Amino acid sequence: MIIKEEINAALGKGLTQAQLDALHNARVAVVGLGGLGSNIAIALTRLGIAQLYLYDFDKVELSNLNRQYYFLDDIGQYKADALVKHLRQINPYAALHSQVVKVTQEKIPALLGDCDIICEALDDAAGKAMLVSTVLSTWSNKKVIAGSGIAGFGKAEEITSKKITKNFYLCGDGSSDFHDLPLCGARITLCAMQQALLAARIILDLEEN
């Protein structure tokens, strides 16, 4: 059995102790565990972030496998359960608060109150707007990292991250719509990695305030 200290050292290779501690103690939520969210959670765990709050109400389907971090034996399982299984293979000591739940405006205070950073990874525009506006209007100290514009086979450099307001960041190309374009797993994962990297940069105080 690999002990906790060995896992932490492996995930934090090359980092200072202060950076390791900051990542380990940060509390990050991922709302929506599909193409964006499942890959965000994997990247955050590999970064050494050990306190994740994971929310989704959907089950894994065969059609998800082209872009989401699931496998054939996950089909039929709730994403909130299946993803935890994979994250445990990276860090068995992580504190994973995972729930099968649809995140509504009324539930946000209870679900996200303990989190420092919220990664928005929902499918529909209305849900995205509701989550972002509710978090930003409810708390003055929480950061929201949203994704928008991830469909199609556009160039990698079109997927960028931008600071919109003091506490709100947006990743993606800002325009491509999955209703009009196919979903390419590689491009979706690019956006997910941007969101995960941005979360780490905020935690490590590498972003301008």
Describe the structure.
- The chain has 209 residues and is of the alpha/beta class.
- The protein has seven helices and seven strands, in the order H-H-E-H-E-H-E-H-E-H-E-E-E-H.
- It has helices spanning 4-11, 17-25, 35-46, 79-88, 108-112, 125-138, 185-203, and strands spanning 27-31, 51-56, 95-100, 117-120, 143-147, 160-165, 168-172.
- It has a seven-stranded mixed β-sheet with strand order 3-2-1-4-5-7-6, with helices on both faces.
- Helix 4 links the parallel strand 2 and strand 3 (95-100).
- Helix 3 runs parallel beside helix 4.
- The longest helix has 19 residues, at 185-203.
- The relative contact order is 0.17.
Short description:
The chain is of the alpha/beta class.
**Biggest sheet, strands in spatial order?**
3-2-1-4-5-7-6
Based on CA inertia axes, which overall geometry fits?
globular
Quantity of strands, as a count: 7
Strand content: 15-25%
Sheet with most strands: 7 strands, mixed
- Indicate the radius of gyration in whole angstroms: 16 Å
- Specify the helix fraction band: 25-40%
**Elements, N to C (H/E):** HHEHEHEHEHEEEH
Structural class: alpha/beta
Q: How many angstroms does the end-to-end distance come to?
A: 42 Å
Number of helices: 7
**Mean of pLDDT:** 95
Point out poorly predicted stretches.
Answer: none
